[in-house]
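Before relying on records like the one below, remember that each one covers exactly one chain. Contacts with other chains, cofactors or solvent are not represented anywhere in the record.
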Amino acid sequence: MLTIHEFDLTEAAYNAIVAIWNANWPDRPVTVAAWQRTAMQRNPTYAYARFVVKQNERIIAYGGYEEPVWSAGTGAYVLFYEVDPAHDNNEIHGLLCQHITQRLASLPGATKLITANLREDKPAKIAFLLSNGFQQVMRHPIARLDVAAFEVSRYAAALARVQAAGIVIRPLSELQSFDPEWQSHLWMLDNAAFQTMPTVAEITERPYAEYRKRFAEPGFTPAAWMIATAQTNTDPVGPYVGMSTLWPDANDATRLWQGFTGVDPAYRRRGIATALKVHTIHYARRQGVKYIVTENAEGNPMVQINLQLGFAPQPAWVNLEKYFLEEKNHV
């Protein structure tokens, strides 16, 4: 008999859901400690819930919903769930999805947008959600760069043009030594650049307190964050106009994950994004890293920049979404 329960935060429950995740995503393993740390840092003002499905008291699936920080208060929620591959069937998928969406229906606000993020190499799960009223609305191509194969000489002229235009690119670790306001400057740049990114939901400004949490994450490496500033005669730092970040893979020292790459809208189409990417590749090469993995939404010019730099396409993430009205249509 299948039963569904609130997640109880015990060590045994964490062990069970982490094992389920790792069985489904062996190329992106996680640890209990990492998930517990994320839970402790979560802001309780944003809606979040997690449930488990048990069979004879054994956890065989989990799922829930989360209100994204970048779209808080808009009625958008992210649905997530995973099932133990040894027990995977549509009955469990249906039980979780129905329970999650019913709980979402009880939250304030009439109209809800539920999104689910899946990878294209999970076709059965995608097919289930499509058969239950979800629609695919966006792809996020994943791409991987062979760092050793990158042709550095091809970009010497492009880097020189950016530098000649008064744009200085340097690691955050250098800026930290003489800019005491580096955190707020990054936050303002990130919000300005992120506002125009293709997304499935309305973008809202992320609070400064939330943004600063990333600087306390174990993988935060200031030397791997490349920041572009615009030189001026009166400001020794200059405004922050672009950024590109790298994060280590906790399970694979040969791989780095490319985080957010963005340029202030007022400074776009000047080659800054490409120059930032080249600087991150230089960093990866110095560290002896073999691969950089990144992802961007289709429609984002960064996809073409990645391809031009030599990133090879991998299975993409897809966004599925479903609207429902609280008063009329509980899914």
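Confidence is low (pLDDT under 50) at residues 326-331.
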